């Protein structure tokens, strides 16, 4: 290196303009040069691998895709990769994804590392500082392809929709030209969640009819990215994806849209076409209480077409808590939604958010009473009794005027802001319930045994008498369920 002129001091040299060297072009069309990794997608075959696989292969690339939840990538695949892209659509996936990133860095330190998906963009600052070269959020396929093409050209960026260590990009919200998801390299449905119903167990497939969400619940991690927008996936693409999974052995389909009834006509037509082609295939979907009430006339038809249960984010029966997170329903609406589904012959599987900064011990006991009174003990996955509010970076809750009253510092490595309940008994109960349901799940306790044990902990925390164990069966029959619990 040539020495600096004597008239320029070292300190002065540090303030001189710097030119970022142009990166060397990469050959990314070789098989395995691009490695796509999934860590966790709720026990289903990862659609967040199948879509980018199809998108990149359509453009002439030959990526390798590995679902690490079924079989971790081998060292040879990691060593051969020049770009490793890790899918992180939820909190659990990101925690596992960082562990996988550490392995990639140890085995192949020269590989470029990209995180893509909902929780990538929310945690971009931390990921880019500690692990990632690139982060993509929102509709990620087009920015991922643009990044790959830029790396091939040796273009230093910025790439639209892609954040790197120099440039920050917002989430990509441009509608893409959806390809049929490519599941050819993924493990077949028998490796994933199964439907349990009427004494039989069948493999369950998974697809989506929309992305994003029309609604803006304050605690939802989708809101900071999509802000009330959603995109419909073309009907022919969804049906082709279902057809492929049925050929692979799926006999039940989970529609995993954040809310299946954001576009009710679109959803209904897909279900009608599914039933016409595969009348023996059942399905489930997720929708909000508000939509069950607004579209109540559709549910008998959904049942006729094969719907066996609906997941709905009940969250709480405290009207105060529901108001704080802007959930769009009240306790009375939950009761009415249950009636609508009962009359249609469809089970509800509630998802819960029982621990928030506003939840009291009395609220928690009221929630347990509600579950017993409504005959829902067997409808609730035990993990839901323990779920504590997560507040990721960018959460809409942070914009509320009262946020400063309860929010704590950001724990970047845990991907959430901390908070402490004003009643220490509530935080202590949450920890006890989390430990208990983990044990119950591991040891295979029945729903009623788990419920009674959770209630005993709650009554002890509140200093009230423990009621007698509830009856073994509520007024609803045991509902269909998936072998993998639903949570984020």
TrEMBL record:
<dbReference type="InterPro" id="IPR023404">
    <property type="entry name" value="rSAM_horseshoe"/>
</dbReference>
<dbReference type="GO" id="GO:0005829">
    <property type="term" value="C:cytosol"/>
</dbReference>
<dbReference type="InterPro" id="IPR051198">
    <property type="entry name" value="BchE-like"/>
</dbReference>
<dbReference type="GO" id="GO:0051539">
    <property type="term" value="F:4 iron, 4 sulfur cluster binding"/>
</dbReference>
<dbReference type="GO" id="GO:0003824">
    <property type="term" value="F:catalytic activity"/>
</dbReference>
<dbReference type="InterPro" id="IPR007197">
    <property type="entry name" value="rSAM"/>
</dbReference>
<feature type="domain" description="B12-binding">
    <location>
        <begin position="31"/>
        <end position="158"/>
    </location>
</feature>
<feature type="domain" description="Radical SAM core">
    <location>
        <begin position="199"/>
        <end position="432"/>
    </location>
</feature>
<keyword id="KW-0411">Iron-sulfur</keyword>
<dbReference type="GO" id="GO:0031419">
    <property type="term" value="F:cobalamin binding"/>
</dbReference>
<keyword id="KW-0408">Iron</keyword>
<dbReference type="Pfam" id="PF04055">
    <property type="entry name" value="Radical_SAM"/>
</dbReference>
<dbReference type="InterPro" id="IPR034466">
    <property type="entry name" value="Methyltransferase_Class_B"/>
</dbReference>
<keyword id="KW-0489">Methyltransferase</keyword>
<keyword id="KW-0479">Metal-binding</keyword>
<keyword id="KW-0949">S-adenosyl-L-methionine</keyword>
<dbReference type="InterPro" id="IPR054699">
    <property type="entry name" value="rSAM_CUAEP"/>
</dbReference>
<dbReference type="GO" id="GO:0046872">
    <property type="term" value="F:metal ion binding"/>
</dbReference>
<dbReference type="InterPro" id="IPR006638">
    <property type="entry name" value="Elp3/MiaA/NifB-like_rSAM"/>
</dbReference>
<dbReference type="InterPro" id="IPR058240">
    <property type="entry name" value="rSAM_sf"/>
</dbReference>
<protein>
    <submittedName>
        <fullName>CUAEP/CCAEP-tail radical SAM protein</fullName>
    </submittedName>
</protein>
<feature type="region of interest" description="Disordered">
    <location>
        <begin position="468"/>
        <end position="488"/>
    </location>
</feature>
<keyword id="KW-0808">Transferase</keyword>
<dbReference type="InterPro" id="IPR006158">
    <property type="entry name" value="Cobalamin-bd"/>
</dbReference>
């Amino acid at each position: 290196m040539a020495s600096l002129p004597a008239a320029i001091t070292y300190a002065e040299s540090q303030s001189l303009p710097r030119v970022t060297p142009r990166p060397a072009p990469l050959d990314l069309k070789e098989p395995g040069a691009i490695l796509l990794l999934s860590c966790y997608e709720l026990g289903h075959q990862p659609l967040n691998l199948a879509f980018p696989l199809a998108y990149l292969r359509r453009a002439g690339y030959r990526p390798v895709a590995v679902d690490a939840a079924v079989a971790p990538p081998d060292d040879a695949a990691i060593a051969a990769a020049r770009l490793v892209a890790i899918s992180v659509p939820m909190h659990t996936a990101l925690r596992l994804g960082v562990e996988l990133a550490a392995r990639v860095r140890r085995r192949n330190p020269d590989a470029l590392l990209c995180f893509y998906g909902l929780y990538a963009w929310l945690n971009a600052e931390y990921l880019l500082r500690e692990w990632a070269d690139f982060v993509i959020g929102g509709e990620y396929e087009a920015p991922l392809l643009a990044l790959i093409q830029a790396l091939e050209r040796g273009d230093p960026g910025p790439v639209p929709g892609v954040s790197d260590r120099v440039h920050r990009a917002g989430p990509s919200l441009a509608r893409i030209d959806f390809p049929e998801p490519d599941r050819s390299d993924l493990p077949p449905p028998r490796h994933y969640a199964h439907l349990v119903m009427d004494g039989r167990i069948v493999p369950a497939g998974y697809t989506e009819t929309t992305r994003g969400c029309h609604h803006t619940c304050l605690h939802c991690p989708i809101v900071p990215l999509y802000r009330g927008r959603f995109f419909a996936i073309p009907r022919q693409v969804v049906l082709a994806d279902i057809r492929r999974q049925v050929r692979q052995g799926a006999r039940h389909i989970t529609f995993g849209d954040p809310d299946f009834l954001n576009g009710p006509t679109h959803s209904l037509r897909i279900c009608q076409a599914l039933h016409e082609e595969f009348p023996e295939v059942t399905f489930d979907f997720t929708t909000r209480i508000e939509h069950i009430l607004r579209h109540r006339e559709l549910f008998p038809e959904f049942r006729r077409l094969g719907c066996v249960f609906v997941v709905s984010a009940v969250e709480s029966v405290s009207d105060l808590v529901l108001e704080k997170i802007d959930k769009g329903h009240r306790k009375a609406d939950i009761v009415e939604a249950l009636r609508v589904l009962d009359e249609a012959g469809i089970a509800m599987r509630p998802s819960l958010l029982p621990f928030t900064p506003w939840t009291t011990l009395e609220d928690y006991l009221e929630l347990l009473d509600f579950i017993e009174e409504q005959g829902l003990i067997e409808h609730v996955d035990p993990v839901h009794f323990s779920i504590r509010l997560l507040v990721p970076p960018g959460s809409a809750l942070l914009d509320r005027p009262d946020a400063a009253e309860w929010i704590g510092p950001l724990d970047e490595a845990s991907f959430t802001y901390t908070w402490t309940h004003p009643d220490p008994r509530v935080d202590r109960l949450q920890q006890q319930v989390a430990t208990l349901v983990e044990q119950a799940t591991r040891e295979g306790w029945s729903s009623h045994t788990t419920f009674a044990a959770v209630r005993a902990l709650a009554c002890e925390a509140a200093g009230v008498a423990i009621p007698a164990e509830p009856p073994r069966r509520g007024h609803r029959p045991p509902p269909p369920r998936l072998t993998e619990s639903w949570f984020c």
